[in-house]
Design goal:
This protein is of the alpha+beta class and 452 residues long. It folds into three domains: 154 residues, no CATH class; 100 residues, Immunoglobulins (Immunoglobulin-like, Sandwich); 131 residues, Immunoglobulin-like (Sandwich), CATH 2.60.40. The chain is built from 13 helices and 18 strands. A five-stranded mixed β-sheet has the order 3-10-9-6-7, with no helix packed on it. It has a five-stranded mixed β-sheet with strand order 12-18-17-14-15, with no helix packed on it.
Length: 452
């Protein structure tokens, strides 16, 4: 009966009492570990919950472990068939990749979505041993609903109708607001193809939902990320900004921010800062593709903003990415000065110039003469705007173009900056291109920007 005691304490939001009851468990070792993990998850100690559930899984009978580790009902339709073809005995590595990608916050210890799913499986075991509030027999359909959406956080009752005054209708209310953290099938199959749009936490019709204790509000970040070569390795510059449109999500000026770089399950490098609404991180890392997760949380307001996507260094290592910086301070002379002024988004203002910073390496840095060309050309104009331009009801924006010759500094790294003025072009989506040409070859970099 300790299981029911733990359950009712959890439902009463008495997680500490539930954990004390679970530690007094004298049933099978796997079940006692399950109850402890269930209680730890309720308390928000996800690392401890992860350890307890892992111990529980190792002690389960084969059939039950296969049931608990079957994630097919949580996956997008396009990924489910391939997943079900994997035998239970070979599922561990596949599951590790899924949980790695679906983890809501890499910067948070443990994996709270995984422990949430195991907590739901625990609750599913417990409700089968007691009468349902819905007064229905437990079945696979109800178990699947609980697995996908969790158990009710509250209940309400409708008054009996005059047609059947003896019938009582009970309604369960799931935790809200809740979000979808499972990525799409493409990212699950090949994480190197993952884009920020691979995750849709606020999707209107999600396959699964989860209401984290730390996030009653969620927003998607649009950070700026750029790679720079440092010998045999690299640094990633990642900047975010949560001003303006984020004011309904974040209520304070001080937030906790983190940038996590990962290339495989279990391997996550994290940089953290207690910072303001704008932040810049410079992370040393290997010069190879990785997943990047930028995470900003306001614990007091229970607000989370996140962006996660695959990123890679430029395939031609002679030219860095292009970094956009605030042009108000003029031309920076060093990498450190440029990164300190990095824009937190790829949105630029027509009201003031913005800056571009880049670096040359290898033979490009050693050449006698370089021709630089920068252009800002419109992309994705609406059909209405195009029609207005064709009928001369609106001016066709002229692209911004500038070109000049220069001799690099001829060191191992040659850095360059310039300011760009877009005050004469209309707001909209643009493609910024930096072209670098020497006597032997030409290299270019592209950045999609929004002009406001």
């Amino acid at each position: 009966m300790v299981g029911q005691r733990v359950r009712y304490l959890v439902e009463s939001n008495r997680g500490a009492d539930a954990l004390r009851a679970a530690t007094e468990c004298s049933a099978a070792a796997w079940w006692c570990a399950t109850l402890r993990g269930f209680s730890q998850h309720t308390l928000g100690d996800y690392e401890a919950a992860d350890r307890e559930f892992a111990a529980a899984l190792s002690g389960m009978a084969h059939a039950q472990r296969c049931h608990w580790t079957d994630l097919s009902d949580l996956l997008p339709d396009a990924a489910r068939k391939a997943y079900r073809a994997v035998p239970c005995e070979q599922r561990d590595s596949v599951n590790a990749r899924i949980w790695w990608l679906a983890d809501p916050r890499w910067a948070l210890g443990g994996n709270d979505l995984r422990t949430e799913v195991y907590a739901r499986l625990t609750m599913s075991e417990l409700v089968q041993q007691a009468r349902s509030a819905h007064d229905l027999s437990w079945g696979d359909d109800m178990a699947q609903l609980m697995l996908r959406y969790g158990w009710p956080a509250a209940w309400s009752r409708e008054f009996p109708s005059s047609v059947d005054p003896t019938r009582i209708s009970v309604i369960g209310h799931e935790p809200s607001p809740s979000f979808e953290f499972m990525p799409d099938a493409r990212a699950l199959k090949d994480p190197a193809q993952a884009e920020a749009s691979s995750w849709t936490p606020t999707a209107p019709t999600p396959l699964t939902r989860y209401a984290p204790k730390y996030a009653r509000r969620f927003a998607e970040l649009t950070p700026q990320v750029a790679w720079f070569v440092r010998g045999d390795s690299a640094v990633i510059v990642a900047a975010y900004e949560i001003g303006g449109t984020y004011d309904t999500v974040f209520t304070r000026d001080s937030v906790e921010a983190a940038v996590a770089v990962s290339r495989s399950p279990g391997g996550v490098g994290i940089a953290r800062a207690q910072t303001a609404r704008r932040g810049v991180f410079v992370l040393p890392t290997a010069s190879s593709p990785a997943l990047l997760s930028v995470e900003v949380v306001d614990n007091a307001a229970r607000a989370l903003a996140r962006s996660r996507f695959s990123t890679q260094p430029p395939t031609d290592s002679s030219l860095s990415d292009v970094l956009l910086f605030d042009g108000a301070g003029g031309i920076p002379e060093t990498f450190e000065a440029a990164t300190a002024r990095t824009l937190g988004t790829l949105m630029v203002s027509r009201q003031a110039p913005f800056g571009l910073y880049w670096e040359l390496y290898g033979d490009l840095a050693q050449t006698d003469s370089i021709t630089y060309a920068v252009s800002v050309e419109r992309r994705g104009a609406s059909w209405l705007r195009r029609l207005a331009e064709r009928t001369r009801l609106a001016d066709r924006p002229e692209p911004v173009r500038v070109a000049f010759d220069e001799r690099p500094s001829r060191g191992e790294v040659s850095a360059r900056s310039l300011l760009v003025d877009v005050s004469h072009i209309p707001a909209g989506q643009y493609r910024l291109t930096l072209s670098v040409q020497s006597a032997r070859r030409a290299v270019s970099r592209h950045v999609n920007v929004e002009v406001r």
